[in-house]
Write a structure and sequence with these properties.
The protein is of the alpha/beta class. Among the domains are: 79 residues, no CATH class; 60 residues, Roll (SH3 type barrels); 187 residues, 3-Layer(aba) Sandwich (Rossmann fold), CATH 3.40.50.410; 109 residues, Severin (3-Layer(aba) Sandwich). Helix content is 26%, strand content 19%. The chain has 22 helices and 27 strands. The strands form six sheets. Strands 1, 5, 7, 11, 19, 21 and 23 form a seven-stranded mixed β-sheet that branches. A seven-stranded mixed β-sheet has the order 15-14-13-12-16-17-18. It has a four-stranded antiparallel β-sheet with strand order 4-6-22-20, with no helix packed on it. Helix 12 links the parallel strand 16 and strand 17. It is a peripheral membrane protein. It is found in: Cytoplasm, Cytosol; Cytoplasmic vesicle, COPII-coated vesicle membrane; Endoplasmic reticulum membrane. Belongs to the SEC23/SEC24 family. SEC24 subfamily. This is SEC24 homolog C, COPII coat complex component.
């Protein structure tokens, strides 16, 4: 069990008026990488023609100002420049004939064929050029973090990172690596200043985990005033006897045991031997002072809390889950090279009442204890509730065999919910440890108990002002409960199996505030949905997780972290409290100016956190995803989407808002633009957005392809809605199944496959994800949007 303090530092460039243009350019690239498209309004000013909103997925955005690029269109302005390329990037007054001729038309007017044609050319590239270009230009060389203000490759590019003093973009990714000097300039630019922080990010095997620094009993070296941790940007002065803090400028004494001489450049001669003086990310071994109550923590516990009401039994959930747990318990997370996991486990089942189980190794059979007073739950046993899996294996196996039988004939349909979480949290409190509750729940908790909920699913409210109330918790009870959980380091993961309304917005409050995850399997049936559920469960139980962490973001003078988004709780304005933190979770931090920034010193951001657990360390980040989250999501799903979107990383946000559409006819499929226009009826495509996965089959696809992939003779014989491809021994089948597996492996949740045939009724569902097209309920397509922009700019120019 390591308790560690993790540390991430990042320096950013700062610039004033004269470098404004360069900044806009960088700003735009970041918009693309961060998927901010729908957040940014059409904002541009008279002088620069900035169009920050149009980038994501646009085909031909040049990476640098366009010189004399020939317009690809022979039917208008041939030989001139492409109008859109031109006006995105050109400095004022450089419009050419092309610009003038195109802008002299109204692109929205019915008679205007040439402008429209021009715009169509603009989007006519099949590929998503910005992604392809970045992959080609930046995928081969490692990204070196030593250069201040350098923009990392896009999240869609595979690249390696060399830590040379700034945190790897895997841990911290900013919306901009160049920050305006003043808040006025930042306001004008309209790019949010934010960082997405992913403290436990998984690294590719080629990259080393952060070094662990042990400063012994004295603990990590910090600034006396602002408590920032030692980092490569601290300035050593007076021959190395003192250091000036790069965050608050306070001059501190260097403790004798840490003293080292400086070289002629003022750098400590041991700078490259010490991770904290040369790297952007590292861990400090924490001393007992950093631990809660000044005491090293006990190993954490996992408590499995299983709904055994009628619905849970009828759908086959309880039997499936109990069977799976028997083997899954061998894969609990373990520390470093430990032979067995230190995590202890406990079991509770419930419907209207709670059943605790004593699984002490000395028992021949597990014992059940019923708690029927759900108004004030208590833990009926201490000894024998939380146990080591290996020691109690026989009793646990016996319990998991018996649970499905015990409740097989239940008629109980009502459930409680808050008392279940309360009981799990009390059990951790009694055992004086942090840990995680895995809740498997099926229905709206309507039984008489604290946290009882009403069915408030009112379809009439949808598309009205009151719709938002459906996404707010219906009682404050869960917020209070969540606070207690956070104080105990109790993280809650919720697996929902509803066959009717369950009020995700209220039930997800505790998971959301405790760093947990919510998984939802509507109309679950064990035989159909087991692959997806078991895959999520296995990943969730095995993943590295830290508990009871506190994280703080420090910034250099002039900027300040003002807003935080993610799955955590904050009881004050600076400390991010994470009951649990795993490798999928991010924290987003938004910054504001306090003062004018200095171009020489730049801007610094340091993320530090303490954590304990069978995993590694802790961290964080910024932005405004929340507002966009609901846009393309149906109302019933929205609670879940909000929970997801606030805590997923940039790569997952990117694909969530702009799904990947891969044609399978090419060997190394580059993604094509998410529009129906790009679909060829002679091809098949995979579409994924991190949650959904579709295989679209064109109506005139070759018979050989149909045979190789589906083992049927013709298109008409393919079963629409199929979720598993037959395992066939031919190159195409292997390739497609391999690609599906690799897409699934990249995402934090299992994506269930749905086969969609062209012109089939399921195609409606698929089209929902073609985000460049008009949505089914109307609105503007991406091309409409570009036309609108074109028109607005034309007006401005005239
Ligand atoms: Zn300081």
């Amino acid at each position: 069990m390591i308790t560690a303090v993790c540390f991430l530092a990042l320096a950013q460039n700062v610039f004033g008026e004269r470098r404004g243009k360069a900044w806009q350019r960088r700003g735009m690239e970041l918009i693309i990488s961060n998927g901010f498209r729908s957040e940014l309004q059409l904002s541009w000013n008279r002088r620069n023609y900035r169009l920050p909103a149009i980038n994501l997925g646009s085909g031909q955005l040049p990476k640098k100002p366009v010189g004399n690029v020939a317009c690809p269109s022979p039917c208008c302005c041939s030989g001139g420049r492409s109008a859109l390329q031109q006006f995105v990037w050109s400095p004022e007054g450089e419009q050419t004939c092309c610009m003038r001729s195109c802008l002299s038309h109204d692109p929205l007017g019915p008679s205007d064929s040439s402008s429209f044609c021009h715009l169509t050319h603009f989007t006519s590239s099949l590929k998503i050029q910005v992604i392809e270009d970045d992959r080609n230009n930046r995928g081969s060389e490692p990204f070196v973090t030593g250069v201040r203000g350098q923009v990392p490759p896009l999240v869609t590019t595979n690249f390696l990172v060399k830590d040379q003093g700034n945190a790897s973009p895997r841990y911290i990714r900013c919306t901009s690596y160049n920050i305006p000097c003043t808040s006025d300039m930042a306001k004008q630019a309209q790019v949010p200043l934010a960082a997405v922080i992913k403290p436990l990010a998984r690294l590719p095997p080629e990259e080393a985990s952060p070094y662990v620094v042990d400063h012994g009993e004295s603990g990590p070296l910090r600034c006396n005033r602002c408590k920032a941790y030692m980092c490569p940007f601290m300035q050593f002065v007076e021959g190395g006897r003192r250091f000036q803090c790069c965050f608050c400028s306070c001059v501190n004494d260097v403790p004798p045991q840490y003293f080292q001489h400086l070289d002629h450049t003022g750098k400590r001669v041991d700078a490259y031997d010490r991770p904290e003086l040369s790297l952007g990310s590292y861990e400090f071994l924490a001393t007992v002072d950093y631990c809660k109550n000044n005491k090293f923590p006990s190993p954490p516990a996992f408590i499995f809390m299983i709904d055994v009401s009628y619905n849970a039994i009828r759908t086959g959930l309880v039997r499936l889950l109990c069977e799976e747990l028997k083997s899954l318990l061998d894969f609990l997370p373990r520390e470093g090279g430990a032979e067995e996991s230190a995590v202890r486990v406990g079991f509770v089942t419930y419907n209207k009442v709670l059943h605790f189980y004593n699984v002490k190794s000395s028992l021949a059979q597990p014992q059940m204890m019923v708690v029927s007073d759900v108004a004030d739950v208590f833990v009926p046993l201490l000894d024998g509730f939380l146990v080591n899996v290996n020691e109690s294996r026989a009793v646990i196996t016996s319990l998991l065999d018996q649970i499905p039988e015990m409740f097989a004939d239940t008629r109980e349909t009502e459930t409680v919910f808050a008392p279940v979480i309360q009981a799990g949290m009390e059990a951790l409190k009694a055992a004086e440890c942090a840990g995680k509750l895995f809740l498997f729940h099926t229905s709206l908790p309507i039984a008489e108990a604290p946290g009882k909920l009403k069915n408030r699913d009112d379809r009439k409210l949808i598309n009205t002002d009151k719709e938002k109330t459906l996404f707010q918790p219906q009682t404050g009870a869960y917020q209070t409960l969540a606070k207690e959980c956070v104080a105990q380091g109790c993280c809650v993961d919720l697996f929902l199996f509803p066959n009717q309304y369950v009020d995700v917005a209220t039930l997800s409050v505790v998971p959301q505030l405790t760093g947990g995850s919510v998984y939802k399997y509507a109309c679950f049936q064990a035989e159909n949905d087991q692959e997806r559920f078991l895959s999520d469960l296995r990943r969730d139980v095995q993943k590295v997780v830290g508990f009871d962490a506190v994280m703080r973001v420090r910034t250099s003078t002039g900027i300040r972290a003002v807003d935080f988004f993610g799955a955590f709780y904050m009881s004050n304005t600076t400390d991010v409290e994470l009951a649990g933190l795993d490798g999928d979770k991010t924290v987003t931090v938004e910054f504001k100016h306090d003062d004018r920034l200095n171009e020489e010193s730049g801007a610094l951001l340091q993320v530090a956190g303490q954590r304990q657990g069978p995993g590694r360390k802790c961290g964080m980040s910024v932005s405004g995803y929340k507002k966009a989250a609901g846009k393309r999501v149906r109302s019933g799903e929205r609670g879940l989407a909000e929970e997801l979107v606030t805590s997923i990383d940039v790569a997952e946000t990117n694909v969530f808002f702009y799904p990947r559409l891969l044609p399978l006819s090419t060997t190394e499929p580059p993604a094509v633009r998410a529009s129906e226009e790009r679909l060829s009826s002679g091809d098949i495509y995979l579409l994924e957005n991190g949650l959904n996965l579709f295989l679209w089959v064109g109506a005139s696809v070759q018979q050989g392809v149909v045979q190789s992939l589906f083992s049927v003779a013709s298109f008409s014989q393919i079963t629409s809605g199929l979720s598993v491809l037959p395992v066939l021994d031919n190159p195409l089948s292997k390739k497609v199944r391999g690609l599906i597996d690799s897409l699934r492996a990249q995402r934090s949740r299992y994506m269930k496959l749905i086969v969609v045939k062209q012109e089939d009724k399921l195609e409606m569902l698929f089209k929902h994800f073609l985000v460049e097209d008009k949505s089914l309920s109307g609105g503007a397509s991406y091309v409409d949007f570009l036309c609108h922009m074109h028109k607005e700019i034309r007006q401005l120019l005239s």
